[in-house]
Amino acid sequence: MAPSSARVLYWFRTDLRLHDSPALLKALELKPAAFFPLWCWDPSYIYGHRVGVNRLRFLLESLACVSASITALNARSQLLVVRGNPAELLPELLRRWQITHLVFEKDDNGYARTRDAAVREIAKDAGVELVDVDGHQLYPVSEVLKRAGGKAPMTMQSLQKAIAPLGEPARPLDAPGALPDAIVPGAKGAAKDRKALLTALRDTLDGMPHYSAKGPPDVDLNGPKQGGQRVKGEKVTVYDSLVGPDEDVENLFGVPTLESMGMDPEASGATKTAVVPGGEKAALKRLAFRCKDPAYFATFSKPKSSPALDTSEASTALLSPYLKFGAISCRRVWWDAHDAARKYKGKHTPIPENFKGQQLFNLMYSVVESATGDAYQHVRGNEISRYMDWYLPTAYDKDGQVILPRPRGDEVSEERYEAFVQGRTGFPWIDALSRQLRSTGWIHHLGRHSLACFLTRGQCWISWERGAEFFEELLLDWDPSANAGNWMWLSCSAFFHQYMRVYGLATFGQKYDKTGALIRQYCPELAKFDDKYIYSPHLAPMEAQKKAGCIIGQDYPAPILDEKEEKSNCIARCKAAFTAKLHGADKEVLAGKAEARLRKAHGIPDPKPSTAPKSAASKVPAWAKAKAEKEEPASTKKEEEEHLHEAAGGESATADKQPARPKRKAPAASASGSKGKRAKSEK
Ligand SMILES: Cc1cc2nc3c(=O)[nH]c(=O)nc-3n(C[C@H](O)[C@H](O)[C@H](O)COP(=O)(O)OP(=O)(O)OC[C@H]3O[C@@H](n4cnc5c(N)ncnc54)[C@H](O)[C@@H]3O)c2cc1C
What we know:
Layout: E1 7-11, H1 22-29, E2 34-41, H2 43-48, H3 53-73, E3 80-83, H4 86-96, E4 101-105, H5 111-126, E5 129-133, H6 141-147, H7 156-163, H8 194-204, H9 211-214, H10 280-291, H11 294-298, H12 320-325, H13 330-342, H14 355-372, H15 411-422, H16 428-440, H17 445-458, H18 464-474, H19 480-490, H20 507-512, H21 517-522, H22 531-534, H23 542-548, H24 563-580, H25 587-590, H26 594-601, H27 614-617, H28 637-647, H29 672-682
Parallel strand pairs: 1-2, 1-4, 2-3, 4-5
Helix pairs in contact: 4-5, 6-14, 10-13, 14-19, 18-19
The structure holds flavin-adenine dinucleotide.
Residues 302, 314, 316-320, 323-324, 358-359, 361-362, 365, 444-445, 448-449, 452, 471, 475, 477-479, 482-483, 486-487, 490 line the site of flavin-adenine dinucleotide.
């Protein structure tokens, strides 16, 4: 069919693929006379979020893959990367390239919501038809929300009820077989080759404002705030030109490199090459590999998969980073897994523990985020997040604006948080997971459980917002809906309420691997300990420490806190918070009065300072010297198993049950010395 007169700007965002892309196919249905595949290297993502080097690398690899796939379909084309804020660039691009249609995949979550509201106005003002098409989730988020009566579906049951009338998700669509040329306005036809196109396109952008003209953004891409990735002395920005360095035409409109951002993966704690490589091709290969074994998806049961394996041997599908960036379509994953599982004759795992259940959890968080709005990322203003008197909460000024840089919180919690993010808590299971995350960008779901439970209501009583920030920096699959939602779940702030159930800091990991292989890999200083002590080396006699060549408190930190004591303090605090029934959007919380009221009314003890000395515990505290055999496990096996089942999609995940009653009496207020210190730092 002859091309129409449509000049289409196709804006890639969280759909970095060509297969099953309803928005891309919609754009091609317009039979474009000219087709511009665009990516905006948006400073709001790079500066406005905490993006660690692993995720940046994954994104760059995914973009490079999309670009290569476009070129494979049309040798005269590629992904056109422009560097700047879409709200500033789009009006110019629409005008200069004489665009008639702006097409993209719809995104209902987080920052995209505000950005796209502005883009809608821009298109309207430019007289350009905006076509946005659902495709990132199994069902359109807005449709699910409508069917849930406009109320956030807080349980798997309510989500399933809302989607039931919609039937099965759509089958995936094929990738296009060809892509039209990007034809520069005024040109008689397509450029002779890609280089000619890039040069001609660059010339159309002459005089367009960009950051180097206005001065680069005041945050340094390579600075410590961006994850401590500084490896060169100087400030680095990729925004000093609009279309990339032009010494080599090949690089015009090209994907930036880590190197051009002054980033060295190893210097920031990441592996030299990606453990999980980015891109559509890698995604499809990984899915195909899993589909080879029909039993894998048929018997997939999240609670039974092991968190004690390294990233390269993940027991779960490890598709989350690809799903997050849209390098693979969720419908493709759903149906390929479904079709593979059908070949399996044995018993299949039911929803929600099975693989489909996991994908539905993702949809659930997306819908809840969309219903809750921007407040979803914080406690304050968030109607679904229970209010707990966490340490290190987000600070606000008198107008309710987040204070940045964040003021320091109390000394004890700041030290604990630092030890947590550095993987130096003195609890090898926690430290190995924290270091695995920093190194590879991914840890298993139950590893995330262990970290999140420990940091919040398990032992440290630090706000889930801080935990979510840590994950935001390091996770390859960081997603504003799934991340904050899961942190709320694990901290018993929403979705899950069984606060008595706490993961043991040694016992949980041991369940999966008694030999502590993950610990030996990520905490090599502990590698020579016997299996008996690998999860609790502080309990090893001095002789055993010497034999292992690792003295606790010297070569590896002593535990930063007493697991049992802090667990019972935290349970008491949870109990008080549950009794108070306050939520983030309640008046008292918004007025800043909830914390004092909660602590006073319920006689909540201020947490004790670490019984370990400051700075990663240089001495072994007396309590930690007790022998392993004499120690009563901090979490009972039963508690852990029930928790595990529910937290990974088991029974209670489907019902918003009341919390179990604590069996123990809340401990009395703690030692006065520590109290004074806390009180002072919190004023
Ligand atoms: C504290 C915490 C923070 C998390 N932050 C994120 C995040 O930022 N982004 C993210 O994608 N997932 C997040 N998760 C959910 C989950 O841990 C990951 O999706 C999962 O581990 C990814 O590995 P996989 O692809 O092998 O998962 P699989 O078990 O193979 O599951 C398949 C897919 O289902 C989805 N999924 C599975 N479990 C969940 C879940 N609980 N919530 C939402 N989606 C799920 C993912 O898209 C995943 O790729 C978080 C979990 C916790 C406990």
